Amino acid sequence: MAGKSARTLLLIRLLQLKTYNELAEALRQFDLTPLQYMVLSLAGHRGNSSTADLARRFQIAPQSMNEVVATLQGKKLIVRREAPEHRRILHIRLTAAGIKLLHKCEREVDRLERSIFHDFPRGELAAFRAMMMKALAESAGEIAAAE
Fold first, then answer.
1. pTM of the model
2. 134 contacts: CB under 8 Å, gap ≥ 6
3. Could you give the number of structural domains in the chain?
4. Domain containing 39: what range?
5. Which of 3, 7, 46, 82 is deepest in the core (most CB within 10 A)?
6. Dmax (CA) of the chain
7. Tens digits of per-residue pLDDT, 16-40?
8. CA-to-CA distance for 56 and 53, rounded, in angstroms?
């Protein structure tokens, strides 16, 4: 099979590893993991998420998400408040410190994305994002809503 290029799945995985590792390194200065940052980001953009919603969104066990939320709560970056429609559901909200830290993280993530994708013309990057959204069609609506 000479001349055959690398499998798309392998390329996606390699890009995922590269970007995840660079994101983890960039967030280290804020004492956050990529998942903690993503939870802060989603809470900052969508406001009314519960721990169960976040666990489904990130496809992890509810217990694991509870640990992430507890850590962020311990750092005083989020609070949990009763949902008006159901007192047993707790929505996650950013604190003032969480908002401030999220803004700092967003600037760093913007810098990181520019660094990683600097060779992509704007139209190609938009097309690349659209193709990823299409491949993730089941959760693409949630991703777009989070932006």
1. 0.81
2. 140
3. 2
4. 21-116
5. 46
6. 62
7. 999 999 999 999 999 999 999 999 9
8. 5
